Each structure stands twice: as C-alpha cells, then as structure tokens.
Amino acid sequence: DPDEAASFLPSFLPGPSCAAAARNPSLDSSITTLQRILMTSPDFAARCAAVQALTTVAVRSGEPFRLRCYAALRGLQRSASADTAAAAGPPALAHEIDSAVTMLDHAYRAKERFAAMLADNGSDPSGWNPGTLAEVTGRSEVVTEMASRT
Asked: Would you say which domain of life the source belongs to (predicted)?
C-alpha cells in the first residue's frame, strides 16, 4: 500500500536537513539544481557559474545548506584530484573548485577563531588588545581578498 509506505518515509529522512528544506524549499531546490549542473552540465561556463553560486550560498547560508554546498564542492574536488578527467571534463574546473574550497575553509576557520576571541576577550572590541584586533583585521582582509577572487 503506497500510503502505508509513505507513512514510514519521514523516519528515514534526516531531521534537521528535512526541516530546513521544509522551511526554505526554494533554497533547497536551488542547491539541488546547482549540484546537478556542476556534476552533469557539458557547458563549462554553466559549471563555473554553479561553482560560484554554490560558494555564495555556502557563505551566506546557515546549516544545513552551507554544508550541502561545501560537501558538493569538496566531493568534486576529491573526484577531480583522483582522476583529472573525472567529473570535470575538458576544460577542468580544478582551479575554480580549489579556490572556492580554500576560501570557504579560511572563512570557516576565521569564524571559529573570532568566536574564540569573543569568548576570551568579551563582546566589546574597544577593550581588546591591539594584537587581537590586528589578527581580526588580518583575517578579515585575507578572507575578503580570497572571496573577491572566487
């Protein structure tokens, strides 16, 4: 019975991901479409645009959307490094994907480091020492520069 089978479906779906998809089905659908374009499109420009779009969504979105975008890019990066022709085809997107993943890695590390600085120094930056402020400024400049090249 199809109705009986459907009643078991929600127990197999991951809770937070399913809930997030239900809250923002447009974003969920867009990410799925971008992943499909990235993996299957024969058009280099379309795949390159998908890399840029997934990177933008990863930077601007929360969980689980951020992780889905990052996982798609990272998975393709691993596939391409294992076989230079895999999933990338001529011309390959290795440089674009590597740049996007590296930028996201730096952004996530900077976010974690800033959270640690907030915990250590308080939420008022006027009380922070100059070295800590210089680190925040430096990290921000590096991530901003990397994002502008991605």
From this structure: Eukaryota
